[in-house]
Amino acid sequence: MKKVILLITAGVIAGCSSAPQNSQKMGMANPASVYCEQSGGTLKIKDTADGQTGYCTLPDGTEIEEWALFRRDHK
């Protein structure tokens, strides 16, 4: 009887333990950069005193900061 209880307890404990998750971080694209390319533009990253800023050159030659373009078209 003690062996049965011991086996049941061991089974319950083993069933409750979880295997380690091998989760990989998935890269998520910058929505403003994706929108620039979807609009037919080309993306250029410029170094500034504050860091890096992405600029989108649209097919008509207009150059606009990528987030300004995204916000302008997604109000």
Notes on the protein architecture:
The model has no long low-confidence stretch (mean pLDDT 86). The protein has a three-stranded antiparallel sheet. Helix 2 (31-38) crosses helix 3 (66-73). The radius of gyration is 27 Å and the shape is rod-shaped. 41% of the residues lie in helices and 23% in strands. The protein has a domain at 29-75. It contains three helices and three strands. By secondary structure, the protein is α+β, with helices and mostly antiparallel strands. Strand 2 and strand 3 form a beta hairpin. InterPro entries: DUF333. Residues 1-19 form the signal peptide. Keywords: Signal. This is DUF333 domain-containing protein. It comes from Morganella psychrotolerans.
